[in-house]
Amino acid sequence: MAMTVHCDIVSAEEEIFSGLIEFVSVTGSLGDLGVYPGHAPLLSELKPGPVELKKQGGEQEVFYVSGGFIEVQPHKVSVLADVALRAGDMNEASAEEAKKAAEHAMADQSSELDYSRAASQLAEAAAQLRTIQQIRKKLGK
Amino acid sequence: MAAGKEIKTQIASIQSTRKITSAMEMVAASKMRKAQDRMQASRPYARSIRGVIQHLAKSSPEYKHLYMQQREVKRVGFIVVATDRGLCGGLNVNAFKAAVASMKELHDQNIEIDICALGSKAVSFFKSYGGNVTAAKTGLGDQPEAADLIGSVKVMLDAYDEGTLDKLYVVSNEFVNTMTQAPKVDQILPLKAEDDDDRLSHHWDYIYEPDAKELLNSLLVRYIESLVYQAVVENNACEQAARMLAMKNATDNAGNLIDELQMVYNKARQAAITQEISEIVSGAAAV
User: What is the complex's ipTM, to 2 decimals?
Assistant: First the structure.
């Protein structure tokens, strides 16, 4: 019987796979890499791409991850998948947005009731704006 | 029977309130189950990433990250997680009390404080209470997404990177069980290494791809984000549980109130009938 190693594939919002595998290949930031049981400790960033597993018994399975990390220990492989697509400028924009929301909230000294309504409207508008930007981005490609 | 009519209207209004509270209770109960599932679902990631971070802390990296170094504390950041809506008992108030207590302690040591408020209740609390709110995020809804938190967490992490903040805490509620939620204040930066695994105590290091610095940077940011996300998801489960309990109490109280009013109404009606009969009887006797 082939050697196996325990593998976990998880994202922040759910567990995607957990079990014994014979082989896994992922898209590392420097290129594809395959891991067999007993691999040296390795920590690598992942690019968006497929994760191919060969489960115990030879059955194949493929998952898609939109980036993340892989940690390899001789007895364990963990794939930490990202849920959100990340781009540097997008993070910057959302940080800016959070700051603005804070400033806005503090500057507005009207009653609390008005404020919470205004805040939810603001959040809604911001969300719509974000969606539009994402759609535009997709269309642009 | 003038009083009788007033009591009737009052009973009707309490009954409609009871309908609303019992509906809210049921909604909260079903939402709580989903929130609990989400809380469970987010745990494997947190466990795995914590494992990686602990291995990292024990490895002998050529590069020591900023987040792992202790430094003199002049200014600390608090990420305060609260709900967007009210009617959930003392949940938010308890968390704010815990936050304010530890803030006061730091304030007495002349340490300044920056706040990141998550949830509109946190925003409005710190607006009236005072405090330097540098980031805010509201409207997370019942299904908070990790992506929604990236911005606010980044504000705090940037401040930490620049050296403005020297420590970072998260204040949120811990889901003990459906009946109990406990506020907690956790330090998330700098990272504390825990000692429980001796297998990795010898000298070793990872193969890093690409280089250690870049990799650790983004990995640790992910870790902090996952901690905050976990806190938000857990707080969401707490919110639903607390609301369910608060609404159950409100429904019970409305029921009691209705019973009492019904009693008062019956008595008033009986009194009116008795009076009428005695009037008729005495009238007939006089004839």
Answer: 0.70
